[in-house]
Amino acid sequence: MFSNFDFDVIRRSAAYLFFDGMTFTLTLTGLSALGGLVFGTLIALMRLSGYRLLGRIAGLYVDLMRSLPLVLVIFWFYFLVPISGSG
Predict the structure, then answer these.
(1) At residue 6, what are phi and psi to the nearest 5 degrees?
(2) How far apart are CA 28 and CA 35, in angstroms?
(3) What is the 3-state secondary structure (H, E, C) of 8-48?
C-alpha cells in the first residue's frame, strides 16, 4: 500500500512542519482565547446591564448559539469561509 510513498520527504521537513505548525496552532489558540474572553465579557455585561434591549439582544444571541449543533458551525466555517474570502 505504501510501497511508492517516500517517507524521507516527511523526515527531511519534520522540523519545518513542526515549527511552523506549532507556531500557527499556538497563535490561533491564543487569539481565539483572547477573542472569546473579550466577546464573552461583552455579552455578559450586555446581559447584566440595566437596558432591556441590550439584555434581550445578548439573550437572543446566547440562545441561538446554544441551539446550534457544533457540527453545523464547523461545517459553516469549513465550507463557507473559504468561499466568502475568495470573492
Answers:
(1) -95, 100
(2) 10
(3) HHHHHHHHHHHHHHHHHHHHHHHHHHHHHHHHHHHHHHHHH
Q: Are 47 and 58 in contact (CB under 8 A)?
A: yes
Q: What is the DSSP letter of 55?
A: H
pLDDT on residue 33: 97
Task: State the Cα angle at 68 between 64 and 70, rounded to 5°.
Answer: 135
pLDDT tens across the length of the chain (87 residues): 667 788 888 888 888 888 888 899 999 999 999 999 999 999 999 999 999 999 999 999 999 999 999 999 889 888 888 787 765
Strand, coil or helix: 11:
helix
Closest CA to 66 of 82, 43, 33: 43
